[in-house]
Each structure stands twice: as structure tokens, then as C-alpha cells.
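Q: Here's a chain of 200 amino acids. Please give me its 3D structure as C-alpha cells.
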Amino acid sequence: MKNFLFYFLLFSISVNYSQEKEDLFSLISNEDKKIELLPERMIFTQSLLWGKKGLLRKTGISELNLENRQKELRLRKSMLTAHQAIGYLTLASMIAQGIIGGKLYNGDESLRSTHNTMGKVVNIGYFTGAGLSLFSPPPLINKKKSKGFDSIKAHKILATVHFSAMVATNHYKYRDKKIHKAAAYTAFASYATAVIVLKF
């Protein structure tokens, strides 16, 4: 009888334990279902690549799961760090290009080749930096929208201005000297301000 009670008690405990274990696992799986792997809002370039129906998801290169999102967030950090470093180098290149361009505009034709080469350097730096920002994986969650005007909003507005100005600078390069110059100065001023504003 004692053996029977012992085995019955042991059996009851093991059944209860296994049920609790199953309940815990079901809770964990329910928790997993609640985790949103993508933010509510993404810029269209991020959505194009990294969205639920993005190119990298459809091709199977980066399936949407927790492990891949962790890798993507590390990649995002690296891309945005590179974006920032290239941004500083591009700003320095723009300053040099502005000095060279000013001398060329004042009639120093000996700098024409240097100006063209420096223009390529600025373009490569600028559009590489822009690409790193635009095509980086999205964050896990969106930051709460602030009610006022902050440095991030200013940076984004200025990014729209300097991107448009860079396109105009290249478009009018051989078409209209005055518009080219105005666009170049607009690109530089808005770009420099966009870099500075993030420091405050």
C-alpha cells in the first residue's frame, strides 16, 4: 500500500509538473507572438528591402524572424556609424570643393580638372552616405514622435533640402553656371547644418 501511495504521489507530481511546463511553454510562445519584429513606420527605401513583403524577405535572403532581426539591428548600427563617418569626410570635401569652385568661378581655369575630380569625390561620398542611411534596416521600434521641433526632425528636413540641392547641382553642372553654383551652396549650407544640428 505504501508503494502504491508513493507511486501515485510521484505520478501526480510529474503530471502536474509537465502540465505546468506546458503552460510555461505556451506562455512563452504566446509572448513570442506578441513581439513585433518591425516598426509601425518605415521609410519607403527600408520598406522596399526590409519590410514584411520587402525584396530581402521575398528572396529569402533575410527571413523575418527574431534571430535575423538581431543581425539586422547590428547591421543597422554599423551602417549608420559609417554614414556618420562618411558624412564628416563629405563635409570636408564639400568645403574644399567650395574653395576650388569659387576660384574657378573667378576665372582660374587651371583648377577645372581639380574641380571636376573633387566633384566626383563629393558625389561618391555624399550618395554613399545617403545610401547607407536610406537602405539601412529599420529600427525595432519607432521613437515616439515629439511634439516640438527637435534635432532629428531638423536633420530630416535638412536632408530633404541637401539631397534635392545635390541632385540639382549635378543636373545643372553643364547647363547653367549660376543655378549650379546656387544649388552647390544650398547643398553645402543645408548639409553642414544637418551635421551640426545632430550635435545639439
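Q: Can you summarize the key feature?
A: The longest helix spans residues 66-105.
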